[in-house]
């Protein structure tokens, strides 16, 4: 884990999920401060990070925000922390923190359970374009 950038927040995402891939591309467009790097959960590095922070990969159905050496967040808490760091009005989504975490995670889990049915999935993880390659860790 010593090779991870200490000055970046790492977003672990489902690399075969169309919704997740769209969210990653959206975050990249809104990340003018260059805060985030991305790792597919299915990648070797994704698995190493999950093991390092101690998340049971058999129960993993979530986006994870990992701040190396500091903390990690998943489900709705990760989504809200990411939104807060984005440009423009998306940072105002933090207002949803007033909702109880159990309720936010219930909604998050409902979407997560249905994401493949609603948005589809790819056979393989997304391969970033040459322009976006620097945003992804291997």
By helix and strand content, what is the structural category? alpha+beta
Number of strands: 4
Termini separation comes to: 12 Å
Taken as a percent bin, the fraction of beta residues is: 5-15%
Please give the count of helices.
Answer: 4
- The largest sheet has its strands arranged as 2-1-3-4
Describe this structure in words.
- A 4-stranded mixed sheet has the order 2-1-3-4, sandwiched between helices.
- With 138 residues, it is an alpha+beta fold.
- The model has no long low-confidence stretch (mean pLDDT 86).
- It has helices at residues 18-30, 44-53, 75-85, 101-119, and strands at residues 9-13, 36-40, 64-67, 71-74.
Map the helices and strands:
Blueprint: E1 9-13, H1 18-30, E2 36-40, H2 44-53, E3 64-67, E4 71-74, H3 75-85, H4 101-119
Parallel strand pairs: 1-2
Antiparallel strand pairs: 1-3, 3-4
Entry keywords:
alpha+beta; 138 residues; 4 strands
Short overview:
Helix content is 38%, strand content 13%. A four-stranded mixed sheet has the order 2-1-3-4, with helices on both faces.
């Amino acid at each position: 884990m010593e090779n991870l950038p200490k000055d970046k927040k790492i977003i672990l995402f489902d690399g075969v999920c169309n919704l997740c891939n769209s969210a990653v591309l959206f975050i990249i467009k809104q990340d003018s401060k260059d805060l985030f790097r991305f790792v597919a959960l299915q990648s070797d590095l994704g698995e190493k990070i999950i093991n390092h922070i101690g998340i049971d990969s058999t129960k993993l159905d979530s986006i994870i925000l990992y701040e190396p050496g500091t903390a990690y967040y998943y489900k709705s808490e990760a989504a809200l922390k990411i939104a807060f760091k984005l440009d423009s009005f998306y940072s105002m989504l933090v207002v949803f923190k007033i909702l109880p975490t159990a309720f936010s995670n219930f909604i998050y889990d409902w979407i997560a359970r249905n994401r493949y049915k609603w948005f589809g999935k790819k056979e393989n993880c997304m391969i970033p374009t040459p322009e976006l390659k620097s945003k992804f860790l291997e």
